[in-house]
Amino acid sequence: MKASLVLNHKNQIAFFYTVPFTVVPEWASVDVAKGELFIGGKESEGQRIKLEHIDTRIYERVKTEPKILLVRVKDDQTKDPLEALSVPLMIPQQL
Q1: Closest-CA residue to 10 (of 91, 71, 90, 92)
Q2: Looking at the domain assignment, is residue 24 inside a domain?
Q3: What pTM did the predictor assign?
């Protein structure tokens, strides 16, 4: 799956991807330490996506941002999304 975690033109955290998720997204979690995005839904299992790199600016925003915009595109055509959904964003906390 081609995917990238970015700050979009509206300064929102956005995740652009090309292949539909295996679950209907209801929330997302970014684990910066592991470099993973987890998409959660009503099903008991979700979908983990390994991220190549997380920019420092995005890392700082992930810690405070309440939502993430999930945007499915066709072959990196970010100006013409196939679908977009804003879901709550969480970060894992160590106990």
Answers
A1: 71
A2: no
A3: 0.85
Domain that holds residue 73: 1-7+29-78
What distance in Å separates the CA atoms of residue 36 and residue 53, rounded to the nearest whole number?
Answer: 10
Q: Which residues contact 34 (CB under 8 A, 6 or more apart)?
A: none
46 falls within a domain = yes
Do 31 and 91 contact (CB within 8 A), yes or no?
Answer: yes
Q: How many CA atoms lie within 13 A of 59 on its CB side?
A: 9
Give me the residue label for tokens 């390994």.
50
Q: Is 57 helix (H, G, I), strand (E, B) or coil?
A: helix
Q: What would the two tokens of residue 10 be?
A: 């509206």
Answer yes or no: is pLDDT of 89 > 90: yes
User: Greater confidence, 69 or 80?
Assistant: 69
27-31/36-40 β-pairing: antiparallel
